[in-house]
Design brief:
By secondary structure, this protein is of the alpha/beta class. Helices cover 35% and strands 22% of the residues. The strands form three sheets. Strands 3, 4, 5, 6, 9, 10, 11, 12, 13 and 14 form a ten-stranded mixed β-sheet that branches. Strands 7-2-1-8-17-16 form a six-stranded mixed β-sheet, sandwiched between helices. It is globular and about 70 Å long.
Length: 451
């Protein structure tokens, strides 16, 4: 009789449950450890992000689980850029491209719970317990493969920061997320901005204060809703408003206030939305320092363990790379583990992480820097944003980086970006950009008073 190889997974979020389901289906004997029971994970904690899957990441996800959801799908994004403040505030540009793929925004608590349910149905074990460094040492000593999908209990201290791959030492944005209901996502919502209505998400950029994402969302309980993320620059006017939020009602009030003052064209729609009363933890605030860690470590007794998901690479969510990165890392690791017949040594685990870094991780960190407006990407933004405003193919290519960020790695110089625009647009880049002129005015929702 062949004994099945054993796997221990610490953490039952998206990364942990995806890995658990994938590995149990691959024939491993898998135990997931969590400090919360299943009901608490689904109903007592906030979602750790919107978790949009843009395009290609859904192909990796399909290797683990079928698509269970029809709500929260979008096919494009309406972007608007504003600059300046007060009387000098200017409407600069807008574009509303199709992605060329489908994006899906589903409550991460629902995604994880559905995976956990299937994992249990297929013979996986779920143990509710607190895992600290000592307990991890015991668990790793008894398992053939140990994956860490949480930094709780001091576990993140096992995986030191990779200084050569980590570009920031502090958060670049203050974050506020909330899910709101009361308006059914449909073709009439946001029709003043896109012919697709709520089939396209919104992305408003403010050069002084940050960014706001709004998109159709599948909430775990009430279904079709809208999810918001405010990305507030620490030096801007929105940061203090986030600091004053202490509950879902406060989150809604802060967001409605920002729209009323800074994006009045959209405010009439936003004002109709209300909190999800059945889910008092439908909101979250905080900040993330984008960090790449050395993703393989050994416990005090010398047992190798590997970090997955946010425990390995944490992202500012402005470019939506966190959930996608976790799913892609896990799906590839499942395939590699299934095909591997030897021990899961530290060397093998490190090699697999390097493959992931080259496959997706590096590009995902760089596209996040692009959308954060990092100075290293000033030329990219200077050229691509006005080009996108006048050429839908350039706009589609820009948002295509959310699905597949790897082309960005080839755009290092100004000439690279110019050639990229020329290739995508089918005409010389300078002719494309020459057609750009500031927007002046933006179309507005009915009853909006523009200023």
């Amino acid at each position: 009789m062949t004994t099945r190889r054993s796997v221990a997974i610490i953490g039952a979020g998206l990364a942990g449950t995806t890995a658990g389901l994938g590995l149990v289906d691959a024939g491993f004997d898998v135990t997931i450890y969590s400090d919360r029971d299943r009901d608490s994970l689904r109903n007592k904690v906030p979602p750790t992000g919107v978790g949009v899957l843009f395009g290609k990441s859904q192909e990796w996800d399909a290797e683990i689980i079928e698509d269970l959801y029809t709500v929260g799908k979008t096919t494009g994004m309406s972007a608007r850029l504003y600059s300046g403040s007060g009387e000098d505030r200017t409407r600069v540009l807008e574009y509303d491209p199709e992605y060329g793929y489908v994006a899906a925004a589903v409550d991460l608590r629902l995604r994880a719970d559905d995976r956990l349910g299937r994992f249990l149905d297929r013979g996986g074990r779920f143990e509710v317990t607190t895992v600290d460094l000592d307990r991890l040492d015991e668990i790793a000593g008894a398992a053939d493969l140990t994956l860490v999908a949480t930094g709780k209990g001091g576990l993140s201290s096992l995986f030191p920061v990779d200084e050569s791959r980590t570009k920031y030492r502090e958060p670049q944005r203050r974050l506020l997320q909330v899910t709101l209901t009361g308006v059914e996502p449909g073709p009439d919502v946001f029709s003043y901005r896109s012919s697709a209505g709520a089939g396209h998400s919104l992305f408003n950029l403010d050069s002084e204060n940050g960014e706001i994402y709004v998109g159709p969302f599948l909430h775990k309980d009430v279904g079709p809703t809208f999810s918001f993320i405010v990305f507030a620059k620490p030096s801007g006017a929105w940061a203090s408003r986030i600091d004053d939020v202490h509950d879902a009602i406060g989150a809604r009030r802060a967001i409605a206030g920002i729209f009323a003052e800074f994006f009045p064209e959209d405010a009439p729609v936003i004002e109709q939305l209300q909190v999800v009363e059945s889910d008092p933890v439908s909101w979250l605030k905080g900040a993330v320092t984008p960090t790449v860690r050395k993703a393989v470590a050994t416990t005090k007794s010398g047992h190798p363990v590997a970090a997955i998901g946010d425990t390995a690479i944490s992202f500012d969510p402005v470019a939506g790379q966190g959930a996608q990165n976790a799913i892609i890392q896990v799906a590839e690791l499942v395939k590699a583990a299934r095909a591997h017949s030897g021990e899961f040594t530290a060397e093998w685990l490190a090699e697999e992480f390097e493959k992931h870094w080259e496959r997706r991780g590096h590009a995902a960190t760089e596209v996040t820097r692009l959308f954060l407006g990092d100075p290293d990407y000033a030329t990219h933004l200077e050229l691509s944003f006005p080009a996108a405003a006048v050429n839908p193919d350039v706009a589609q290519a820009l948002f295509g980086l959310l699905s597949d960020p790897n082309p960005l790695l080839g755009l290092r110089t100004r000439e690279d970006v110019e050639n990229f625009i020329t290739a995508v647009a089918g005409e010389p880049h300078d002719q494309v950009i020459a057609r750009f002129s500031p927007a002046g005015e933006f179309s507005a929702a009915p009853s909006a008073v523009t200023v």
